[in-house]
Amino acid sequence: MTRDPLIRVTAMPADTNPYGGVFGGWLMAQMALGAGSLASRVGQGKAVVVSATDFAFPGAMAVGDELSVYCDLLTTGTTSLTIAAEAIARERNSEATQTVARGTFKFVLIGEDGRPRALARGGAA
Question: Which residues form the HotDog ACOT-type domain (predicted)?
Fold first, then answer.
């Protein structure tokens, strides 16, 4: 089975922490962007993050490495979606990859009125 990344981005010097490593907060933000893309597609509209849990950072990446974020829909509720995100880094000058972060995001679907709205059953998945 092949997976397509929801987003792909290169880590830049501005994305580092004071120790010169890629900042974990930047990784989490990229994962939230990828998960949000899936949530909006499945939910067919606006979706906002209401929680982020179960984060682990099993690897590290360097400036210039390419980050790919993969997401899977775990569960759906009446107005919510729970999405697992995995961040995989590819070394800049090779094909070597490693998982650098994992986490789970919960989204609530929002209607035009700014209030939670129900997930359309049988919609896009």
Answer: 1-113
